[in-house]
């Protein structure tokens, strides 16, 4: 496999803190999530990979270029969306992104064309001529994303791109990130402190904690299917609470239920999680729903959510609380 980022025993020690501790990674093309709590070392890693900060120990390369000696070439080929607000308030998105394109070496006409295309891609239209100071957080995040993409990089580093966004804005941003790879073939390294939000967006997830590698695997490994069936039924005149009627009948037939982990989410009260012993459990559910005269809305094998991999007790007992980090 082609490697996009390689680090070998990479360490970054500040006088009081070890931000990275002998971190060894091997990241291929596609969308990779870099997850860690605040202070785990994500931003520090990005700065080292861009060749902006020298590491204390170890080595790293990006697109085959050594970060210690070829930072300039790396920055020509890599886009960077920083975490914090860094936009000038009194210029428009168009002026700012054209400026960044010119800084990257694009001639004036190409810079204007690429700016228009990129701002359209990130979903900024008429607003692009207004001063950035009046933008919402979501619009500012889009400008930051546009400036990272305008010089047509092969790889982008996105540092906490969903920070400060509401759920809709977050979903839209995650969709945009996915399309950076599918539409343009650009590889993405995206950081987040929310494990759950990366499961639909990333091909691969790397988890760091205290500057060390906790886990690195493909998202499908994280989200493998479980033996739990999620069943949802409609109510009927005869059974005004169809879910309760089905639960009662299935319990009598010996079915084992898990506590719903979707508690608190819309419609969660109508989802039954049945432990599937085999094909016969599917048949039992189908036949019981038919006997009760209910409508079967869905019956599907449930997948693990990434967050559960790190909190196995939550997956086992169904005791997880919906938190900010939970997938919706
Ligand atoms: N220039 C610096 N001087 C001293 N300590 C630093 C410096 N930069 C980062 N640190 C420390 O290194 C650790 C890792 O910081 P880093 O910003 O890389 O974490 P992070 O995972 O990106 O978290 P966040 O999302 O909160 O930015 C933190 O304890 C931070 O305080």
List keywords for this structure.
14 strands; alpha/beta; transport; 25% strand; binds adenosine-5'-triphosphate; six-stranded mixed beta sheet; ATP hydrolysis activity; single chain; P-loop_NTPase; Rossmann fold; 328 residues; 2 domains; four-stranded antiparallel beta sheet
CATH fold annotation of the largest domain: Rossmann fold
Secondary-structure arrangement, i.e. CATH architecture of the largest domain: 3-Layer(aba) Sandwich
SSE pattern, N- to C-terminal: EEEHEEHEHHHEHEEEHEHEEHEHH
Beginning-to-end CA distance, first to last residue: 33 Å
CATH class of the largest domain: Alpha Beta
* Total strand segments: 14
Mean pLDDT score: 87
Folded structure, characterized:
- It contains 11 helices and 14 strands.
- It has 328 residues and is an alpha/beta fold.
- The chain has 2 domains: 5-222, Rossmann fold (3-Layer(aba) Sandwich); 225-303, 2-Layer Sandwich (Alpha-Beta Plaits), CATH 3.30.70.
- The strands form 3 sheets. The chain has a 6-stranded mixed sheet, sandwiched between helices. Strands 2-1-4-5 form a 4-stranded antiparallel sheet.
- Helix 3 (93-103) crosses helix 4 (108-121), helix 4 (108-121) crosses helix 5 (137-149) and helix 8 (242-252) crosses helix 9.
- It starts with a strand and ends in an 11-residue tail after the last helix.
- Mean pLDDT is 87; it is low at 312-328.
- It binds adenosine-5'-triphosphate.
- Adenosine-5'-triphosphate binds at residues 14, 17, 19, 36, 38-44, 83, 160, 193.
- Adenosine-5'-triphosphate (ATP) is lined by residues 14, 17, 19, 36, 38-44, 83, 160, 193.
């Amino acid at each position: 496999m082609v490697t996009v980022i390689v680090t070998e025993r990479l360490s970054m020690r500040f006088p009081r803190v070890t931000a990275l501790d002998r971190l060894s990674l091997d990241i291929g093309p596609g969308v990779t999530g870099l997850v860690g709590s605040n202070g785990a070392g994500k931003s520090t890693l990005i700065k080292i990979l861009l060749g902006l900060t020298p590491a204390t120990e170890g080595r790293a390369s990006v697109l085959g270029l050594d970060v210690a000696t070829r930072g300039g070439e790396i920055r020509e080929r890599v886009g960077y969306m920083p975490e914090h607000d860094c936009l000038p308030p009194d210029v428009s998105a168009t002026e700012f992104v054209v400026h960044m394109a010119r800084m990257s070496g694009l001639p004036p006409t190409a810079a204007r064309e690429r700016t228009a295309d990129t701002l359209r891609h990130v979903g900024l239209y008429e607003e692009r001529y207004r001063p950035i100071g009046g933008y919402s957080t979501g619009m500012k995040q889009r400008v930051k994303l546009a400036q990272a993409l305008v010089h047509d990089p092969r790889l982008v580093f996105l540092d906490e791109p969903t920070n400060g966004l509401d759920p809709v804005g977050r979903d839209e941003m995650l969709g945009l990130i996915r399309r950076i790879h599918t539409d343009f073939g650009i590889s993405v390294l995206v950081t987040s402190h929310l494990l759950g939000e990366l499961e639909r967006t990333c091909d691969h997830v790397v988890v760091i904690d205290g500057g060390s590698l906790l886990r690195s695997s493909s998202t499908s490994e994280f989200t493998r299917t479980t033996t739990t069936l999620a069943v949802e039924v409609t109510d009927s005149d005869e059974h005004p609470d169809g879910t309760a009627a089905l639960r009662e009948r299935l319990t009598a037939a010996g079915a084992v239920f898990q506590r719903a982990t979707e508690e608190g989410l819309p419609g969660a009260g109508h989802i039954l999680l049945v432990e599937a012993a085999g094909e016969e459990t599917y048949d039992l559910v189908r036949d019981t729903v038919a006997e009760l005269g209910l409508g079967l809305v869905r019956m599907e094998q449930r997948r693990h959510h990434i967050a559960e991999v790190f909190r196995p007790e939550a997956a086992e007992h169904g005791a997880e609380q919906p938190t900010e980090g939970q997938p919706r």
